[in-house]
Amino acid sequence: MNRPWTLASSVAGAVVVALDGTVLTVAQPSLQRELRASFAEVQWTSTGYLVAVASLLVFAGRLGDRYGQRRLFGIGMLGFGAASAGIGLAPGVGWVIGLRVVQGVFGALLQPATLGMLRAAYPPDRLASPLAVRTAAIGLAAAAGPLVGGALVTGMGWRAVFFVNVLHALAFGLPALLWSGRPPVPDRTPLDPPGAVLLAVTLGCLVYAVTARPVSGAALALAAVTAAVLVRHERRTAGPLLPPRVIGSPAVGAALGVLVAVSASLFGTLFVATYVLQRRLGLDPFDSALRSLPLAVLMVLSAALCPALLRRCGARVTTAGATAVLALGVLVLSGATATAALGCGFALLGAGFGTVMVAATQVIVRRAEVTAAGVAGGLQQTALNIGPAVGVAGATALLPAGPGPALLALAALPALMVPAARALPGRAGVTSITHTPDEPVPAGGPARR
């Protein structure tokens, strides 16, 4: 597999999805005015996408393991681009909502493949560097998104922000489908449709429940019931959707938990910080974006430095330290009003999140066999979709008590997950590819990771 092309494709896929989310936020007020939509309808342009993505990520990863990550990546990119073009031409808000759901389906096909391709192209002990490049690109997209979206909406209208995706989709989606290299190793593991349906219902209900206003108790209850049925089914089926060697690994479980906690804390904090900057301090959106710019800058720098930290300290110490740094950043913001204090708080947030993203993702992806890399990528992406939904929902519920108490609660969330990092591998687990206790060595052959 061509490594430079694979890395470029992985970065392009991640950036397209990241940009789409940030520019939509900027475009929503203009969209609402032009299409005469209600606030509830505008909210569903985001909720419909999130529910579709979160529901299908893991099963999409399984499809990539079965039929080839490159093929799923190509289908996902082209479908995402086609849905984006359709949204740009939509005559009404109902069409926008429906096509955002379609876009979410193709986004679910695309996202796990961006990680699965990296796992197939790079040996386990060299994964940290491409993951760092990918994370840094996401950080740049997060910083550029509001600026690009604002410029496009101001100059060309809200529809332009969706047409931007079309060129990237064609540039990377078509080569991925037309590439005639060596086909993937056949994988005869059953797809487990019942498990896929149960997981989709569980995750979809969970995301809907926490994004609904007010929180939907019925959806939460249904998610709990289907989760219990899913656990029972996965334990009994011969070919589970969630391979025990992936989901049963203490290191993978800890890494997923940390990702959920830090992403919930980050996005909940950004939600509260936007309220503080614009409502309390009276800043306009552009000035607010400038105040938060250190977050994106430090996210890029920390991602670039993380591979060296992993080699020197291991995933355990690196992740625990970065999680604590992120919690400290939220604490600083809880009492900040001056520009310098705000910049320091946002910088700590970016440094912590960028480092955790690379370190935890590296643990999740490298611990999976190549034939389960898509599922591992789907789990990582699921954590990064559920975390923000939970964080924003929690921040919304806590904000009436004041931004200070809300931010203190959001700081406690990652702080409580610092001990979980003890389950991650130490320095030896990063610099070598030897057998570890939760990775049994196949009989008659060396350990594989």
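Next protein, fold it too.
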Amino acid sequence: MNGYHFVKRVFDVLGALVTLIVLSPVLIVVCVLILLFLGAPIFFRQERVTIGERVFQLWKFRSMLNPDPERGLVSDGQRMTRFGRLLRSSSLDELPSLWNVLCGDMSLIGPRPLPTRYLPHYSDQQRRRHQVRGGLSGMAQISGRNRVRWDDRFDLDVEYVDTVSFGLDLRILMRTISIVLRADGISQDGEVTAENFGGTLKSDLVVFDQRSRTETITTWSVSGSDGHEIGCCEISVISAQTLLIRFDDCTKADPDIEIRREVVRLLTNRARATEAEFAVCAVRADGVDRSVLTEAGFKEIADPEEQLKFGHLASADRILAGCRLWPDEPADLDADTDSHADNSAYADNNEYADTGAGRSRLILFGRARHEAGRGESAMQRPPKADASQ
């Protein structure tokens, strides 16, 4: 296997070098078109993780307009243009990453390198994807690209690590060419590209079974591993700034603290899959959820004025707790950096502007739908002036 990894590196260098030389006229034309249709900067850079969990700067062509709240250019859908979709569908935005292959940061074939902000949320099994160099394409990409859910993608990445060979790489390369020509699987259902990875949604204790999904509301039934019903979960968009999450317990017995911990963990992971920056939870002051939230990293918001900004009326029997969903978010590398995601036409993630007052979500946990408000929190910050891809 070590011998093949040496041969693989030789093929990577030759393949990337020849492709860059042959397509150099295309690279020049794309640079000019980006300046005409999207403006400066031309390139998108972001810190990613490769073999040995080493961090490097990924290079790609920018495919979205710079964020501009005054013009209504904030979300991915608002910033995406026809030209940007063309770049993605043709995978021309990937060409600068060939430089990363030449430098040894990436391989032509391997698990897609993902943002550093995801590192704390991998399971031990998922971290094994970093035993090989990240690649331009891999098993997850030829299995549906952005349509494959995160847990399934990581399973495929680990399978690649365990079975890597020349024959497998050749099959992936051939399938990749076919998929790129068909422009298949570029975006995830309901997303411009794909959702964030906030942590695994697999659980040995509870099962979330999606009941329905519309543009504004998604509901799940929640049951235990033995099949008994525990309750239901609902995520609903109640304004441009607010996402409401609630969990209704239908059991008559006292709350099981382990079940509660698992529900909070899964809801927090689902919150990270959105564009939310903070999670805010309203629960009974004398309930078991208070200690569970503290264990999960939530901190109580004691200031009544601050609570009101989150749409919560201060009361003796209910408390409000919040946490930052991405506490160790890396600093921007340049004016086109986005720590959230990738503008990959393959299968990484979506392109987000920095979450600000116009986009952050309010997340409530409990039975108090009427407490959800439309106020702006002091924890929210205005969008940065730099572009974000």
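About the second fold: Confidence is low (pLDDT under 50) at residues 331-361, 366-389.
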